[in-house]
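*** Residues and shapes ***
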Amino acid sequence: MFMHVIPAPVVGAHGDEAHGTHGEIDHSEADAAEHAGDHAGDHAGDHGDDHHHAEPALHIGLPAFLGGFDGHPGKEGHQLVVYNLQIFQFAALLMILIGFSGVPTYLRTGQGDTTSKLMAGFCLWVRDDLVEPAMGKELSNRFLPFMMFIFFFIMFMNVMGLTPASVTPTASIFVTGALAFITFSTMIIGGMIAQGPVAFFKNLVPHVPLILWPLMFVIELTGLFLKPAALMIRLFATMTGGHLVVLSFLALIFLFGPFAGNSMAKAVAISPAWVGFSVFVMIIEAFVALVQAYIFTLLSSLFISASIHPEH
């Protein structure tokens, strides 16, 4: 269950070592029973060896100036490794490609399967009720593909995190930070292209008395950075908090177990209440998964629109 909130490298064992280990374990049941005491005494050492032999399934060397991205500190140099988060990010991209493959044909001809009709309705809703009211018709036409990608990418990642044995990429501050940085870059670059570099920073401050201009410039410049920071923290905290609440309810089963006199029957008797609370929170999380994609996309649309057209 902790997989939902803790990113971990995708690891694999060395082939020869793995086969050797399995050979020793599968030797025979008689040998296993005969050496049970030895195995029990050396359990800690064997566990340490297995941990030592576990290597990232994929690691790529990095130059020294990218050492902050080192995902394998135990190995010499700096390594970029694949985390379980990336697997579900690629899965979200794959779901977008598959789910929306028939949407263009349906919008042109009106012919398509149920999935294409459903996804086309989602696309029209994002355009008509989300992006266009926030950015205006002219600007939304230019940014609509980008905003749709942000919305559905976040939505699919959020929803996949609710399935068993999955990981929620948006429960990682690094993922939400990268998404917020994309919004921030679009704000800055789009504003500079539309207004010019000097006019962009000049127009950050509304019409105020000259004596207040320096103070207002600092405040508005700070706000420019706080907007994407708020996007990052809101999405991360909401998705992480939901999973932690579920974990907390499930942990109560083990917490109240000793108070039940270490009786398995009593522990099982009180578990349906905590499981019921967990299921209820998961239902709420399904709704929150869609709401957070909506909020992130809406605020990104508003921030980008305000940077490109400050008079609005």
Q: What stands out?
A: Residues 11-82 form one domain. Residues 264-308 form the longest helix (45 residues).
